[in-house]
Amino acid sequence: MATAARTTRIDRVLRPVHRWVWRDGGRRVRKLLAFAEVETDGGRDILRAAEVTPDPLLRRLYLAHAIDELHHGVLFRERGAELLRARADGASALFNGNPLPGGHGLDDVSIEGEADARLLAFLHVAEKAAAGRFLIYRDLVADDPATHAIFEEILRDEVFHMNYTYTQLARISPRTYRREVWLARLSRVWKRVLRLAAAVGALMGSAFLTVLYFVVLPPFAWLARRAAKREPAGWAPISARTDAPPTSQY
Ligand SMILES: [Fe+2]
Ligand SMILES: [Fe+2]
Fold first, then answer.
1. Which of 9, 22, 43, 128 is the most exposed, having the fewest neighbouring CB atoms within 10 Å of its CB?
2. How far does residue 174's CA lie from ligand 1's centre (Å)?
3. How far is the CA of 16 from the centre of ligand 1 (A)?
4. pLDDT digits over 99-151, tens only?
């Protein structure tokens, strides 16, 4: 059953944020270079999956998949580098970070000790998310034909990855494949929640330390300054102690 790429509701809601991210040249370069890393890492992991799977058909498919992802990494890296060179001014925007998760999510993949069914379910969910997101990105870079063409090409591959992983999952787990996909979806959502919680925790930690610095520390600084004023300036004579041995430091 071949399915076309579809954007999720949350990505449709976040479309203005995606547009804001891609509008700026600096952010665009950073995004492309970040994608290059994720695609290359994902390609290496899937290559490892091809080595360890006992299933000959899956080995061939994983291998083709890994080659695609490594190729995506090269496309993104080269385009990112080209745009970087073209940015002669090297200006940095007010905020160059990326508030949204990356396109692929293959960075979460774990191969060692993973059964093929779980891996295929994970890959299917990740590829589906990537295909939906690359669909948005492709439209948002319509002003940049070279980057647009890269997304167009990669999107075709991601749709193939999304479909073959589902077909193969249904082949090797005909009774439980739907459940596997749901579990993979839940695990992906849970990882997102944990990441969000970690980000919120870091933000709250910074806010708390700032409050501590400006509210709690000043009274102590004031007390220390007041105590310092009472101290005589310069050297102070020590009390004469006759019982102290001459070799004592005090
Ligand atoms: Fe990819
Ligand atoms: Fe992919």
1. 9
2. 26
3. 24
4. 555 566 666 666 666 799 999 999 999 999 999 999 999 999 999 999 999 99
